[in-house]
Amino acid sequence: AVQVFQVACGTVTAWIIHRTALSLLDGRGYAQLVALGSALVTALSPFLAYYQVRMIHPFAWDTLLATGLLHLAVRATPERNGSVLALFTLGGLALLNRPTLGVFMLPFLIAHFRFMVNGRSLPLKCGLVVLLFGPLSLWLVRNEQVSGRYQLTSVTDQMIWMGLQEETEGSGHMADGRSYAHLLSEPEQFGLFEMDPAERSAFFRSKWHAELDASPGLWWRMFLTKLKNFWLFRSHLGLDHGSTTSNLAMSLYKVVASTTLLLIAVGVMYRDRAIAGPLLAVLALSLVQCSFYFETRHRLLAEPVLMMVALAAAF
Fold it and tell me: Strands, E, within the chain: which ranges?
């Protein structure tokens, strides 16, 4: 049942990116072709499908929220209050689900910056702020009552520490397939099972503080490594490595990611304003995500958007 739901999320995502492309490229002769191509690569991408039919994972739902939020950010205008309310309502849900998804509201915030900062329609804007940050604020209050700290998740410090590990390239697995946990000593590994969430947070916080003190440039080195991995690819698979299928998949992904980045660079060179907003949103996603730890699925959240931008640049 969950896999059916995940495939349904992927199907709706393909439909939304089709509508988004039509909105962005309205009036251009190749709009229909880019829209259809974006929908097809989103629906049939083996990398997106992996998270829909090979595992139970919130990835498909996250991708649907990201794509839907971008679509509303492109379509919403201050003249239509309903569209703005829909955008900020979905934004509140997206922030609660995965705070990094908030970057997909950037096209609206940039295009209508003056509307957001002027003093007109103040009651409406107060309501928008409540819609956007209310759910997340209630979640923070709940966490403070449970753990004593205002935090989004009890594993934030653990994620920061994971993102500093050179052996994993800031991800969850090393080149030999072992998880980041094997970078801890045996007493530390067993000790984690005896800690509550607050104690785990303190444990990992002290570890990443100590590692940064020992190597002051470590954060920036790993940030640039993760940024490269976001826009291109990691040097190893991490999991499922070694089989012929996995090696072929890795090779295919390298070709797709490299071609996509090349086409995006062409789009930037032509200074196409239609793709500027979505591209800035994905750039913001890469900067925010790589501040923590990075897995390839975090880039795949924006894959429908990146493929749309690449196809638009190609045409």
Answer: none
